[in-house]
Design a protein that fits this description.
Bound molecules: glutathione
Distance between the termini: 24 Å
Largest sheet: 4 strands, mixed
Strand order of the largest sheet: 2-1-3-4
Shape: globular
CATH topology of the largest domain: Glutathione S-transferase Yfyf (Class Pi), Chain A, domain 2
CATH class of the largest domain: Mainly Alpha
Organism: Stigmatella erecta
CATH architecture of the largest domain: Up-down Bundle
GO molecular function: transferase activity
Radius of gyration: 17 Å
Number of helices: 8
Structural class: alpha+beta
Protein name: Glutathione S-transferase
Strand content: 5-15%
Number of strands: 4
Helix content: 55-70%
Number of domains: 2
Order of helices and strands: EHEHEEHHHHHH
Keywords: Transferase
């Protein structure tokens, strides 16, 4: 697999963690460099990372979106330590991922805009986006049982989504995660996994 992205991207990190857990090596092309970004744009009309290119037996598959890439890795190599939801859990997991990804994307957009000099106060919608992040973080904390969204311990896609989101919030100073003891505890428990430790965002 050829993986396009940056080492700070929480969505790319999800793919890196899954690849590590499944023992799958990959070639990493950084989109932080203009050449990598130009190459990425030849593969995806969205210009977003992660984007992955698989070449097998002369056929090429190009996938964008972290979930799409992870599903592909799961179908090729099994799910390793990750648990897929039971049919009864599926709606709850999808809800959690949708909420977390909504908060993460809002936070990433605010980060980009602030970097370009725009303040959150510049428009009511930006303020709403910031409040949306706080709403989701508060909700996520209320749902946790230790390191799991479910009463039984598990590592699934909702937990992976939350962990990568929290670490991004701390790394980019986007949200005061420390104000939520259960979120901090969640991070602490998962940080024991080597795949999590080895993929912390770095500047
Ligand atoms: N739904 C996508 C979101 C990917 C995404 O938003 N990636 C960000 C980096 S973390 C990106 O590509 N940003 C560049 C841009 O928006 O131009 C996924 O799960 O992979």
């Amino acid at each position: 697999m050829k993986l396009y992205g940056t080492l700070t991207s929480p969505f790319v990190r999800r793919v890196r963690i899954v690849a590590l857990e499944l023992g799958q090596s990959f070639e990493f092309i950084t989109t932080a460099a203009p050449e990598g970004d130009a190459e990425l744009r030849q593969h995806t009309p969205l210009w977003k990372w992660p984007t992955a290119v698989f070449t097998e037996n002369g056929t090429k598959r190009v996938l964008w979106d972290s979930r799409n890439i992870i599903d592909d890795l799961f179908s090729q190599h099994g799910t390793g330590p990750f648990q897929l939801p039971t049919p009864e859990e599926a709606w709850k997991e999808r809800n959690a991922i949708e909420a977390i990804d909504g908060a993460l994307e809002a936070s990433i957009h605010l980060f980009y805009l602030e970097k370009e000099g725009l303040s959150i106060q510049a428009a009511p919608y930006l303020t709403k986006q910031s409040q949306r992040v706080a709403s989701v973080m508060t909700w996520a904390e209320s749902q946790l049982h230790g390191a799991s969204f479910f009463e039984k311990p598990r590592l699934g896609m909702a937990e992976l989504a939350l962990l990568t989101t929290l670490d991004f919030m701390v790394f980019r100073n986007r949200y005061p995660v420390a104000q939520h003891p259960k979120l901090v505890e969640f991070q602490r428990i998962l940080s024991e996994r080597p795949s999590i430790r080895q993929t912390y965002p770095t500047a």
